Structures are given as structure tokens and as C-alpha cells.
Amino acid sequence: MTELGRRERKKLQTRQSIADAALELFLARGFDDVGVKEIADRADVSVTTLFKHFPSKESLLFDEDEQQEAELVGAVRNRPAGQSIPRALRDHFVRMSYGHVDHPLFGAFNRLVQETPALRTYEHKMWMRHQEGLARAIAEEVGVPADDVRCVALARFALESRDVIFGREDREQAADEVFGLLEHGWAADQQS
């Protein structure tokens, strides 16, 4: 892996400084009570610089968008031989559901998002933007056109299932049930 140049490192440091300032202020006072200028001042950058790194106030809290899509696509493309796509996605969601939980600010961050309608809406839209990339990866893996309705549906349902899984006490059991349904269908799951 190549080392980043000085300019790229400086950009990443500036971006991280802005994101850290935003999180600190939002957690202290709430999303709606903090202005963009205040965040820029705290990070010691101009508002213009802030918006070069983050297109909106909401995006200040969600800076893993590209990484998330790469991981979703990777879960499909890099799954072990013989493993189904729904199972690979299930395993990815289980790992993901526990990934940030150990971070000391996870609980406060999650409460902030859940208690702020604008952040909940932004997070959902951001997450669902991965549908096209995930559907394309699924289609490539099974050898059908990128717009195949089954691949698009599997991508949509898998992405929508995140909130169902993460909202449960036993996330692994919830993931088993949701992705079992996606893999085997409703009829196979029903008792006569």
C-alpha cells in the first residue's frame, strides 16, 4: 500500500478535525442547537472548507459512506466458495452490528441519531444509496444483467433489514431469521 503524500494527509487531518468538532458539539448540545459556523470555528477552518469536505450538516456525522458500500460489495464478491449471497450478507450484518458497539461514544451517537428526525432520515437515505452498487455486485456474481429485479430486490430487502436486526436484543438470531427468509422464502418458513 502506498503512503499518502503530505497534502493528502493534511486533507484527511482537516476532515477528521471537522468531524470530531461536529460530534463533540452535537453530543454536548444536540444537532439542532449547533450551527455550521460554530463547527468550522471549533475546527479552525472556514465554512467554505467545511463544505468542501462535507456537503451538508447531516453528513458531518456520517463519513463512512464509501467504506460501507465497499464492505457490502466485498461481502458478496469475497464470500467463501459455496456460501450463498444471503448468508454472506447475513454474516456481514452480524459483524457490522457489533463493530461500533464497543466504541465509547457509540451509545451517545446512536441516541443522537435516533432522537433527531433529520439525522434518522439522512442515515436511512445514505444507507439505501448502496442499493445500486450491491445489486450490481449480486448480479455480476450470478451472471445476470445489473437491473435484474431479483438482484435489486435482494439488495433492497437486505439493506432495509439492517434496522430490524440492529433493533433486536439478539442480533444474530434476528439476522438468521431475516436472511433465512431472504434465502428460502416465506412459504418454506411457514408451518402448515
Question: Which keywords apply here?
Answer:
single chain, 192 residues, globular
Q: What is the string of helix and strand elements?
A: HHHHHHHHHHH
Taken from the alpha-carbon principal axes, the silhouette is globular
In angstroms, what is the radius of gyration?
19 Å
Helix percent reads over 70%
Beta-strand fraction estimate = under 5%
Uncertain ranges? none
Mean of pLDDT? 90
**Distance between termini?**
56 Å
Structural class: mainly alpha
Contiguous helical run count: 11
Q: What characterizes the major β-sheet? A: none
According to DSSP, the number of beta strands is: 0
Structure description:
The protein has 192 residues and is mostly helical. It has eleven helices and no strands. It has helices at 6-29, 36-43, 47-53, 65-77, 85-99, 106-115, 117-128, 131-142, 149-166, 171-184, 186-189. The longest helix is centred in the first third of the chain and has 24 residues, at 6-29. The radius of gyration is 19 Å and the shape is globular. It starts with 5 loop residues before the first helix and ends with a helix. 21% of the residues are buried. The mean pLDDT is 90.
